[in-house]
Amino acid sequence: MTDSALQNHAGPDAPRKPWYSSLFIQLMIAIVAGILVGWLWPAFGADLKPVADAFIKLIKMLIAPIIFCTVVIGIAHVGDLKSVGRIGVKALIYFEVVTTFALLFGLVIGNLVKPGAGFDIDADTLATGADAVAAKTNDGELPHTVDFLLDIIPASAVSAFAENHLLQVLFFAVLFGLALAKFGEHGPPVVFELIEHLSTIFFTIIGWIMRLAPVAAFGAMAYIIGQYGISSLGSYAKLIAACYLGAALFIGILAAISWFLAGVNLWRFVGYIKDELFLALGTASTEVVLPRIMDKLIHAGCSRTTTGLVVPTGYSFNLDGATLYLSICVLFLAQALGVDLSIGEQVMAVLVLMLTSKGMAGVPGSSFLALSATVAAIGHGAIPVAAVALLLGADRIMDSMRVSVNLLGNCVATLVVARWEGQLDAERMLSVLRGDDVDEVAAQPEPVISSR
């Protein structure tokens, strides 16, 4: 673990640092400053997008190797294909149940709040909407289910890393870790030690890059407000309120899941990861905090194996915030056009979104593509696919809602699966969340030797 990470985990007896050295305080100041700059000088704020983009690229540069090292180290110690398979199956079942619930929950919020009521949009005025959506999505499309599953297998191990395809890297890492455990004592231990050393080096580099996080959050917020304007908050106030209300209530549900299924107080856990949560909110990206979230989960008592398997997989299969947003938006579009969707049509929307939401990660404008596919599947003539363009002005404002729920949802999933597998150190978790001075995770013993 890096020095900066250790400082974050230090207990109450650690020397106190000046308040302004706290990453949490720096991020709050940067986000507020970014909002003010984007509001007062919108043209200048809109030009600051490259600042955030550069930081995100720096983090993405290291995500694939960090996932590879974490998963290989974890699996090499387990050395059991059945255990790895159980973790994977339990995680996927959990993802499907929770994301489906998020879709249904979004429909309930949409039916109660009615965010599209009062828009009174004439469908005939949306002729150019399809072109606007095509421009936003670069004429792309979501992969079909079979293509999505086949795409998990990389064309080559090198291409998985070169294209930063997380599921492909995860797939290769699982095979590599199992093979390393199978090799056991007959192979040179230098391979395992090399991967451990590489992991330490990568996390050290992440620690250096994280010093730029406040600058990135400032640039991202200035761009969002400068590009889309404060006025967009007023135009879509009801939709924004519905989405954030849904997010707040859903986080309460995640808190209940965390407590009853993992025995973890989510509110204390939020305090533990507050730096990462604010960075994700500020940059509107969960990928930038993936390495540190994995590091903190492991430090707090989740096993390397469970963390390494569940977190990266969840970034593609467990987008709770995105699915919640999509179901609310389906009803928003219908209500804005004065269409009353039947229960059957709403159920159809949920079934379609259960499929399309799984292929969203990494696809430009994925929310618009998923909504377009859903509107087309419902087949209601009064809702043209071009109506999706109505969301162009509000979509970017929703990123903070989506990333916060996505991030917490994946953390809770990891805690729950780790508890189910007996790979959650409850005592250590409690100590860490209390703020006690807890030692770094002990150095791992030699990899498990498989006799099979």
TrEMBL record:
Q: Name one GO cellular component term.
A: plasma membrane
Q: Is Transport found in the keyword set?
A: yes
What are the UniProt keywords, alphabetically? Cell membrane, Membrane, Symport, Transmembrane, Transmembrane helix, Transport
Topology in the lipid bilayer: Multi-pass membrane protein
Q: Which domain of life is it from?
A: Bacteria
Q: Which PANTHER family match?
A: AEROBIC C4-DICARBOXYLATE TRANSPORT PROTEIN (PTHR42865:SF1), PROTON/GLUTAMATE-ASPARTATE SYMPORTER (PTHR42865)
* Name of this chain's protein: C4-dicarboxylate transporter DctA
Organism per entry: [Mycobacterium] manitobense
Identify the taxonomic lineage of the organism of origin: Bacteria, Bacillati, Actinomycetota, Actinomycetes, Mycobacteriales
Give the gene name.
dctA
